[in-house]
């Protein structure tokens, strides 16, 4: 599944109307390589970029959104070069950054109208009326000023701004941040609908976000794509490397130092049920079926651990 160049090819039979290609992407900050050897070939659908804070997710999305320029490599969308033809490329782009600002004093309706006009929409009212219900805003919400919005409402407004003009390339950096469970479910259904006719990329450090809505994904660790495939395939990459054991607190602390622990359940004051990844430790552990969270921890620990206790 994982080629030498770490290229992911994905698509949905007759629905692959669009194509995003990222070729040998490198991004350096000074002498430090933040990203290196990034290759992707994505068609219509939802692609999940899973990684911890500081792994390089936001940097990669900012490169695809043309906010940053690469040190090396190329990005094209439907054959349009992202940096040589930036204006044309950006016409297809909708982008939600991890952090974004709103104009104080402007209502939800005014914010959307302003950004729709900035994006060149000829009928801003029609576009705003289309967007408000799909992100769950009511007529009463329309008049709310930005400074009074809850975190979830602000995030939904940001998503609506990213979807102005029905972009064919949608990039959402941590889109579920601040959303409650109902809002997260609504967003998942929305993205599944959009992805029928668009390339959608989401970044997250929450495995459930990827499991529920992404048909393809990658784990980004230390600036490189360590594994790619469907969530099930990525989970299976940890098979034979996930264990469960009832263990003493002292042994638990030794495991924690190696960053191998996935979860801990208290059994008593002195004992705990522990799920961990890597090699067995010879204390009666039993193999268990891997989850995506297990695979995430397992892939990450390969960068840190000489796998021995």
Task: Give a brief rundown of this model.
With 309 residues, the protein is an alpha/beta fold. 30% of the residues lie in helices and 27% in strands.
Folded structure, characterized:
The chain has helices at 57-64, 86-90, 108-118, 124-134, 151-162, 181-194, 207-213, 231-236, 249-257, 292-301, and strands spanning 20-29, 32-42, 45-50, 72-77, 80-81, 93-96, 169-173, 199-204, 216-221, 224-229, 242-248, 261-266, 271-277, 286-287. With 309 residues, the chain is α/β, with parallel strands linked by helices. The protein has two domains: 13-230, Rossmann fold (3-Layer(aba) Sandwich), CATH 3.40.50; 238-301. A six-stranded mixed beta sheet has the order 6-7-8-3-9-10, sandwiched between helices. A four-stranded antiparallel beta sheet has the order 2-1-4-5. It has a four-stranded antiparallel beta sheet with strand order 12-13-11-14. Strand 9 (216-221) and strand 10 (224-229) form a beta hairpin. Helix 3 crosses helix 4. The longest helix has 14 residues, at 181-194. The radius of gyration is 21 Å and the shape is globular. The two termini are 30 Å apart.
